[in-house]
Design a protein that fits this description.
Layout (H helix, E strand, L loop, with lengths): L3 H5 L13 E6 L3 E7 L19 H17 L9 E11 L8 E12 L2 E10 L2 E12 L1
Length: 140
């Protein structure tokens, strides 16, 4: 299990935009499984939505992208690089994510050609799909 300090050794995101709390496992260049503990004190809940806090879908997608970045940027040849969004495809949101949820984030790298790749991403809460889709990345 990797904690935030070890995650920061792999990916460049920092608070308040670091969207994963721990990594359960990862295979460099292949896959990663991470978790986000959704807390009521998260900065985005002040406005999304007052009295009805829901984690924005774009931030669930970002958490998935950061999970995929752990898989890609943990490869020795990619250390010090950054993985940028190249596209988001087939992303569907199936369940609202609220304070108290533990978001499980799973990304499997399904395509790579040079600095471009695609990850199959799925986010679940207690085994129920919250979001899934494909994320295209570009290494820079």
């Amino acid at each position: 299990m990797l904690g935030k300090d070890e995650i920061k050794d792999i990916i460049p995101q920092r608070e308040p935009f670091l969207m994963i709390d721990e990594v359960e496992e990862y295979k460099p260049g292949e896959s990663a499984i991470a978790y986000k503990n959704v807390d009521a004190s998260e900065w985005y809940f002040k406005g999304h939505f007052p009295g009805n806090p829901i984690m924005p879908g774009v931030l669930i997608t970002e958490a998935l992208a950061q999970t995929g970045a752990v898989a890609i940027l943990s490869m020795e040849e990619n250390k010090g690089k950054n993985a940028l969004f190249g596209g988001i495809d087939k992303m569907k949101f199936k369940k609202v994510v609220v304070p108290g949820d533990r978001l499980k984030l799973e990304v499997k790298i399904i395509k790579r050609k040079g600095p471009i790749g695609v990850g199959e991403a799925i986010a679940t809460v207690d085994g129920v799909v919250a979001a899934k889709g494909e994320l295209t990345f570009a290494l820079v």
